[in-house]
Structures are given as structure tokens and as C-alpha cells.
Amino acid sequence: MFKCQSCGDKSEKWQYITQEESVPLKGGRGSANLVIKCKLCGRENSADIFPDSVKPYTGDGDRKMKTIVSFDCRGMEPVDFSPRNGWQCEAVETGTKFDDVDLSEKEWVDYDEKAKETVGIYELTHQFVRQK
Asked: Which of these, 19, 42, 74, 101, has the minimum number of CB atoms within 10 Å of its CB?
């Protein structure tokens, strides 16, 4: 979800942003990966995913927050994140790959046949850090 920096209104619905989509900006000023018109003040706001900023989160045991993507936001800022589906996971010990992982419940569990044990993601959290 995003908040308009002009009037402070927060979007009511989840927004989807991907590098594969490009939406033209009003007035022929280029394009962005996500363009939203604020329902309260009418301002057109946009966000782009910085090229080459999408990084995997690696389970190296240190449970610290890590940057997995960076956005260039114009007129809005992200305030919440819902991971939903389409994620890919890889078991640390065996390298078993799990495709189309659904993280909408902020948890995921499956069974790794190679390791003969349960694998999972638990207590998924996130934060947004403003970069200059």
C-alpha cells in the first residue's frame, strides 16, 4: 500500500508493481512501473523499481533485515507490503527448489524430499528504509 505525499491519503487496495510493466505518465513525461492517481487530491504519483535492485534473500543464519528491492517513488511512499504468491525458495542444505511459493499468510511450509524434513518460512516481517 502507498501513501500520497501531497495529502497523506493511503491507498485502500494493494498495488502490484513489477519491472515487466511500464505505464505512461500523464503529459508524455515518460513512464513508470506503477502509476496511481490519488483519490483524495487527484495527484498522479509513480514508482519505479531500480534496475538491478532485485536481490534474493539468503538464509545465511543471521536473521537480519536485508534489502531485496529498491524503488524510486515520486509523490508517494510505500507504507505496507503483502508478499502474496509467485516467490521462489531454495532449501539451504539440499538446494531443493520450490516454485510459486505463496507467502500471503507470511508463513510457508513444505517438505524437502532430499533432506526428508520440513522446510519453511516463519514470522515474515518487512520494513521500508528511505534512501537518499
From this structure: 42
State residue 130 phi and psi, 5-degree precision: -75, 130
CB atoms within 10 A of CB 122: 8
- Asked if 73 and 54 count as a contact pair (C-beta separation under 8 A), the reply is no
Written as tens digits, the pLDDT of the chain (132 aa) is 999 999 999 999 999 999 999 999 998 889 999 999 999 999 999 999 999 999 999 877 777 899 999 999 999 999 999 999 899 999 989 999 999 999 999 999 999 999 999 999 999 999 999 987
- Rounded Cα distance between 117 and 119, Å, is 6
CB neighbour burial string for 96-108, b if at least 16 within 10 angstroms, e if fewer: beeeeeebeeeeb
Residue 15: which of 71, 53, 96 has the closest Cα?
A: 71
Q: Are 46 and 34 in contact (CB under 8 A)?
A: yes
